[in-house]
DOMON-like domain-containing protein (uncultured Sulfurovum sp), 171 residues
Amino acid sequence: MNNQLISNNTLNNLQINSVLILTKHRLQIDFSIEGALSEYSFPKVRKRERVNELWKGTCFELFLGNTQREAYYELNFSPSLGWNFYYLSTYRSKVEIFKLNNNPVIEIQTSEHVLKISFVLEIEELFLDEFDIYNVATILLSQENERTFWSIKHDQNVPNFHNRANFLKIK
């Protein structure tokens, strides 16, 4: 599933695309950002580990759900290699860290005007083919420490990545 993300404000200095690949036990999400990268702040690469509150800085997000259930999952990951995978029992309920047996692979490629980041996870604990809706999003921190919100769709220009009205069907 290929998507172009749009900003919730008037920014048009970047083009952000995502590609989501789901199989029964494998999740891969790739993001590509092209444009005025120097206007944004990207964290330095550290070690790959679970980190909470990545959304306070530059991060990438994936939401997976099923139209027959209220519960859904949220994946966050960062160019710092920080990541986390959460379970939410209802809309915007308290997040629970979803335990996984495997660690993800996060790969980053950068140049002056392009950043590509890929997140791959082999998941034995979920049947990924049971999900039928998703949303992808990016939060970018500007050099002025202002967050910009990018997603497939914005409801009334208010960033709400959890809102199922903004989710797309998995085909």
User: Anything to note?
Assistant: The mean pLDDT is 92. The chain has one domain: 2-143. The CA atoms of residues 103 and 121 lie 7 Å apart.
